[in-house]
Amino acid sequence: MLAPVLVAMLPDVLRLLEGAMSGAKSRGKGARGEREIVTLLRSALPDGWTVERFGTGESGHDIRIAPPDGTAQPFALEVKRYRDFEIGEVLRGPSARFVAWWRQTRSQADRVGREPLLVTRGDRRPWWLWAPRQYGDGHVNVELQLPLADGVSEVLIGVPLASALEDLAFDIQGGA
Question: Domain 2-172 adopts which CATH fold?
Answer without folding.
Answer: Trna Endonuclease; Chain: A, domain 1 (3.40.1350)
